[in-house]
Amino acid sequence: MGCRIVVLISGSGSNLQAVLDDLTGADAPAEVVAVISNKAEAYGLERARSAGIPTRTLDHRSFADRAAYDQALIEQIDTFAPDLVLLAGFMRILTANFVTHFHGRLLNIHPSLLPKYKGLQTHQRALDAGDAEAGASIHFVTEELDGGPLVLQGRVVIHPDDDADSLATRVQQQEHRLYPLVVRWFASGRLRLINGLASLDGAPIPSGGLRLETIESSM
């Protein structure tokens, strides 16, 4: 049996779809075994249902506090016995208990070139700063918001006429290339978190992460 993946979402699920599209075929090294959202209206749930994948909704507003929600979420995820948990637009700040429970098997994708612009409004912040480029990053999740060890980044040039929406569209195109590749690395045993460092094929990944452009040029 291949790597079992649970994906957490809050919205449209476009990165979920990119992963699902990549994992079609008998030779796929992983399978998405469940999709869980904190919002019942998240379109990503429909994407999962269309692919025949079990879905669950766990509304954070039904819980007294963040700790109670995260504990319930842990229990829900664990029923699917995942090897890997993907955050794909899951708009929740996770507690230390949650992060520790899934240590080494929890990945996130963030729409900036981390460590720049952690949190929200990433595209507008890059434009306001006059940056020459923007992009997306995949990292292992730690207790620090958007601060875990970097795995892979994809970059886009910022054009003079860009606004937040146009920049977001091009960054999202990079996201859809990044996540499936990293999922395959993890599913095949190449990517691991070792002694607090993201490692590919047993070698520590530089602190700034690998670059998608470099990886693709060598493929």
Automatic annotation (TrEMBL):
Residues engaged in binding N(1)-(5-phospho-beta-D-ribosyl)glycinamide: G13, S14, N15
Cellular component, GO annotation: cytosol
Gene behind this protein: purN
Pfam families tied to this protein: Formyl_trans_N
Catalytic activity, EC: 2.1.2.2
Pathway: Purine metabolism; IMP biosynthesis via de novo pathway; N(2)-formyl-N(1)-(5-phospho-D-ribosyl)glycinamide from N(1)-(5-phospho-D-ribosyl)glycinamide (10-formyl THF route): step 1/1
Organism in which the protein naturally occurs: Halopseudomonas pachastrellae
Domain of life per record: Bacteria
Reaction catalysed by this enzyme: N(1)-(5-phospho-beta-D-ribosyl)glycinamide + (6R)-10-formyltetrahydrofolate = N(2)-formyl-N(1)-(5-phospho-beta-D-ribosyl)glycinamide + (6S)-5,6,7,8-tetrahydrofolate + H(+)
Protein name: Phosphoribosylglycinamide formyltransferase
GO process annotations (BP): 'de novo' IMP biosynthetic process
Molecular function as annotated in GO: phosphoribosylglycinamide formyltransferase activity
Keywords on record: Purine biosynthesis, Transferase
Function: Catalyzes the transfer of a formyl group from 10-formyltetrahydrofolate to 5-phospho-ribosyl-glycinamide (GAR), producing 5-phospho-ribosyl-N-formylglycinamide (FGAR) and tetrahydrofolate.
NCBIfam families, sorted: PurN (TIGR00639)
Domain Formyl transferase N-terminal: 4-183
UniProt family annotation: Belongs to the GART family.
Site features described as Raises pKa of active site His, chain residue numbers: D146
Gene3D superfamilies: Formyl transferase, N-terminal domain (3.40.50.170)
InterPro entries assigned: Formyl_transf_N, Formyl_transf_N_sf, GART, GART_AS
